[in-house]
Amino acid sequence: MRKLSLREVKHCVLGLPAPKWQSQEEDRDPRLGEASWGLLCELTLAPHLGFTSLLAEVTSRGLPVNDIIPQCLSAVRRHSLARWESVNELYVDDPDKDSGGKIDVSLNISLPNLHCELVGLDIQDEMGRHEVGHIDNSMKIPLNNGAGCRFEGQFSINKVQNVQGAFNALGGADRLTSNPLASHDYILKIVPTVYEDKSGKQQYSYQYTVANKEYVAYSHTGRIIPAIWFRYDLSPITVKYTERRQPLYRFITTRVIMKFNPFVTSDRSKNRKRHFNAPSHVRRKIMSSPLSKELRQKYNVRSMPIRKDDEVQVVRGHYKGQQIGKVVQVYRKKYVIYIERVQREKANGTTVHVGIHPSKVVITRLKLDKDRKKILERKAKSRQVGKEKGKYKEELIEKMQE
């Protein structure tokens, strides 16, 4: 199936009927009927709407095109306008105020080389709570024929900062290759999280980042007492994820992509390519420098392409100063100019000119010839015409009154 022209694409996007073809035998597909204009539009816009596979399957199977056009149109519109997006928000609040200052914790940890009778859970915080051997809602399951143990438990901890307690370990974390007598310390930064779906229902949870430390702990008697610590710090910042339907203008601007001027682009890579691959006559215009205040008043021109033997003053950059120097070379390949007294010393003791971009200098004296005088006259004339545009002169007003 043929591609649509730019004029036809405009009709598709704006929802207009099919334009008049110049030649039906040349442009219109004879296999399509009058009602197939909608399918042509959808085939053109399908890559932007995610329906390429659907339309390709319809055309490849030879299904009756005129019958499936309404279904395709409605399906594409529903798919594009019914998309949902997730919006993130940050605010300072306690989202779960009904919990009574508690956080529910589920712990599931496997210790393959520790007997179940040696496994225990201690909970302590700065609110005065200290439980040794917490056993409520907990379970010990032997592993490896009793040589190991899996501990499962559920409990609540207080919402206070800088507290030693037990918390959910990282899922899938493996420390089997560590020192069997080492203690493990996990520092958890907990951020309350709220998720609101499209129906307005909110779910409360927590997300966290973790930093761990492994060390061998000795008691005051010299014995090694391995332990696993989970220390948590609750952040006052709450993250909220809201699911909502994308607005209609987003669909129009992102899904329907048209460019009416093929010679203009905002793509950064294309602009860089055009800048650094520009021919010499284009680089000459790019390498223009502003004129000094005196020259602007004299010639009524703001800037000119810089050339050899112009006298300039560096007004920006590392070599900024009041000293005026003459341009000894214009290096268009690198977009720099060389000034007679702007030099630096190399490691071997020789001095070389430093390249200065034309935008960092001001022209204080022009090297005039007949061609440059014509350029100044032309630019001054066009500038004067621009200033007088839209203004009425006395002679014109008198003629209008007569």
Automatic annotation (TrEMBL):
Domain KOW: 305-333
Major place of residence: endoplasmic reticulum
Subcellular location: Endoplasmic reticulum-Golgi intermediate compartment membrane; Golgi apparatus membrane
Presence of the UniProt keyword Chaperone in the record: no
Domain of life, per lineage: Eukaryota
Single GO term (MF): structural constituent of ribosome
Keyword flag Ligase: no
Record keywords, A-Z: ER-Golgi transport, Golgi apparatus, Ribonucleoprotein, Ribosomal protein, Transport
Topology with respect to the bilayer: Multi-pass membrane protein
Region spans: Disordered: 379-402
PROSITE patterns: RIBOSOMAL_L24
Any single GO CC term annotated in Swiss-Prot or TrEMBL for this entry: large ribosomal subunit
Entry's Gene Ontology BP terms: translation; vesicle-mediated transport
SMART domains listed in its UniProt record: KOW
CDD domains: KOW_RPL26
Protein family (similarity comment): Belongs to the universal ribosomal protein uL24 family.
HAMAP family hit by this protein: Ribosomal_uL24_A
Protein name: 60S ribosomal protein L26-like 1 isoform X2
Originating organism: Sapajus apella
Source taxonomy: Eukaryota, Metazoa, Chordata, Craniata, Vertebrata
Gene behind the chain: RPL26L1
